[in-house]
Amino acid sequence: MRVITTKTEMRDQVRGARGSGAAAVGLVPTMGYLHEGHLSLARRARSECDLVVMSIFVNPTQFGAQEDLESYPRDLERDVAMADQAGVDVVFHPSATEMYAPGHATWVDVEGLTDHLCGASRPGHFRGVTTVVSKLFAVCEPDRAYFGGKDAQQSLVIRRMALDLDQAVEVIVCATVREPDGLAMSSRNARLTSAERAQAPAMYRALLEAEGSIGDGERDPHVIRAAVIGRLADAPSASVDYVEVVSTSDLRPVDRIDGEVLLAAAIRFGATRLIDNLLVSPPD
Amino acid sequence: MRVITTKTEMRDQVRGARGSGAAAVGLVPTMGYLHEGHLSLARRARSECDLVVMSIFVNPTQFGAQEDLESYPRDLERDVAMADQAGVDVVFHPSATEMYAPGHATWVDVEGLTDHLCGASRPGHFRGVTTVVSKLFAVCEPDRAYFGGKDAQQSLVIRRMALDLDQAVEVIVCATVREPDGLAMSSRNARLTSAERAQAPAMYRALLEAEGSIGDGERDPHVIRAAVIGRLADAPSASVDYVEVVSTSDLRPVDRIDGEVLLAAAIRFGATRLIDNLLVSPPD
Questions:
Q1: Residue of A nearest to B136 (CA)
Q2: Is the CB of A101 inside 8 Å of chain B's CB atoms?
Q3: Same domain for B231 and B114?
Q4: What is the pLDDT of residues B225-271, one digit of tens each?
């Protein structure tokens, strides 16, 4: 496995591989501090592609001024070993100055889908995500790109972007990988205290109970939302950023649960903000 | 020469040509109603590339609600014959519904460079340009793209975009082609009345005189600007949209002419808005 740090070498590597017969190039964009969720994406890419590239880049433009850019966990050596084990061919690990030219002034914006959920809580976040993912697509020229289901809004936004900008890449969203107690895997989990870690599975449990209520016939999103928030009261370190029941097409809050909805939550456990979601369809 | 109307066929054509050994693909993006300026770009592309694609697409998203989208001149049959003569291999002529998917929501924005000149006069114009050019780059996958010097701000904005988004394309800006009386060639010239057409060369003459003043030692941009506007008083159908002396790096108005500047003007002759510019360096 190679580690590449410049955009020019990265593109040359991909084009060289294509020249040598690689029919399909897969990209797994990550911010590193890998966990089983990332590795599941890499293994899926390995099974479907001739060349598997994993980018590891903590993208500064998707963090707000008050957010956790500096404290975001990093461990490149460990990541490289894990990526190698998962079958990755190339780790692309540029610096921020390599990734963004001096005077960078161009932004990719997806309107509408970014108004709600994390887009509302984290102004400018998705602009940073769509811009850096566009750049990664341009540098790595993948046929397929793999994203985790935990970041449901991100996946929808990136799919919309790829469609709208005619980016020649298939956006593949894989199931969220969870700890045995149900907590969605996230690099940020490493920053939980042991007390917070013990409480964090409450988020997924509350979403599962909400799914159960919908299965039992509840159709009022306000009741569902209140139940999730109520259930989280059991976790004293939890504070709700948002809990929403939204349409899977435009991510707007629904008035009534008539078809498939996304139950999405962002909860702070102490200083660490975690997100999770469930896709739920009411029974016919 | 082929005329292609779908994005899928267009990309297949380019990839097929590459598979058959085309090392360099050139793209000439146009809105059609071709003139000698466009053809000079096509001939330059022909001399440098193995496959030459010309797009002909009157892009609705770069026109304001009050602007001339409906009345923009069109003549595909004539354009196709002229493109063929100039050595174009493929004309890409999508419909607006082919180009923009239903629910299109993604925009490419270049900040800063678009604040002045046409960006100030035509809010949203450059967002439409950068978005459609990004899409054309993604569909046609060119190695080189050719733009006319008349649209000086557009070229700078697109170069910035290509750099910032790592688009693997060289942006080549070619000299403005002029009528014998100096008027910059433009598809919009066809909409001038004969009286307006007779007056329109005043814009270029005024810019040339300003260049002469700078050559004679004038360093005050306000004096230059006033002289250009004063000279245009000779053309009764002319009304000034803007006349500016700006930096070639950030397109901001300069306080003093110390190095190379862009003299840029947008003038309406009757209902038709025309632009022109000169790059001027004061003598040492």
A1: A166
A2: yes
A3: no
A4: 999 999 999 899 999 999 999 999 999 999 999 999 999 999 999 99
* pLDDT per residue as tens digits for the range B76-131: 999 999 999 999 999 999 999 999 999 999 999 999 999 999 999 999 999 999 99
In chain A, residues with a C-beta closer than 8 Å to the C-beta of B135 are 164-166
Q: With H, G, I as helix, E, B as strand and everything else as coil, classify residue B173.
A: strand
> Does the residue B182 lie in any domain?
no
Look at residue A180 and tell me if it is in a domain.
no
Contact with chain A for residue B161, Cβ under 8 A: yes
Closest in A105, A112, A138 to B105, CB measured: A112
A152-178 average pLDDT score: 98
Q: Are residues B112 and B191 in the same domain?
A: no
> How far is the alpha carbon of B10 from chain A, nearest alpha carbon, in Å?
12
A93 assigned to active site: no
Domain that residue B52 falls in = 2-174
- Whether residue A271 lies inside any domain: the answer is yes
The nearest CA of chain A is from the CA of B155 a distance in Å of: 14
Q: Indicate whether A208 belongs to any domain.
A: yes
Which of A11, A107, A166 to probe by mutation at the B interface, max B CB count within 10 Å?
A166
Q: Among A174, A201, A225, give the residue marking a domain's end.
A: A174
